Amino acid sequence: MDSVYLAHLAKCPSCWRDMEVASQFLRIDQLTGRRTLERLLVCKTCNIKIRQYVQLP
């Protein structure tokens, strides 16, 4: 997946600053082979935590 797209998804919805990636891992479904990127994003300014799931092609 394009790193520019993933960077755009890591923007804080409140202040639009870049959020810090606290944890990130890739899950692969055994039956379908679908890849899902799961990450925890934290905004230090707004004190917001977001758990994000991104389906990768």
Account of the 3D structure:
The protein is mainly beta and 57 residues long. The chain is built from one helix and three strands; from the N terminus they run αβββ. It has one helix spanning 3-9, and strands spanning 20-28, 35-43, 48-56. The chain has a three-stranded antiparallel sheet, with no helix packed on it. Strand 2 and strand 3 (48-56) form a beta hairpin. The longest helix has 7 residues, at 3-9. The radius of gyration is 12 Å and the shape is elongated. The N and C termini lie close together (7 Å).
CA-CA gap between termini? 7 Å
Task: Choose one word for the global shape.
Answer: elongated
Annotation field: number of helices: 1
In what order do the strands lie side by side in the largest sheet?
Answer: 1-2-3
Radius of gyration: 12 Å
Profile the largest sheet. 3 strands, antiparallel
State the total count of DSSP E strands. Answer: 3
Oligomer: single chain
Structural class, from secondary structure content? mainly beta
Helix content: 10-25%
* pLDDT averaged residue by residue: 91
Low-confidence regions = none
Could you state the order of secondary-structure elements as H and E?
HEEE
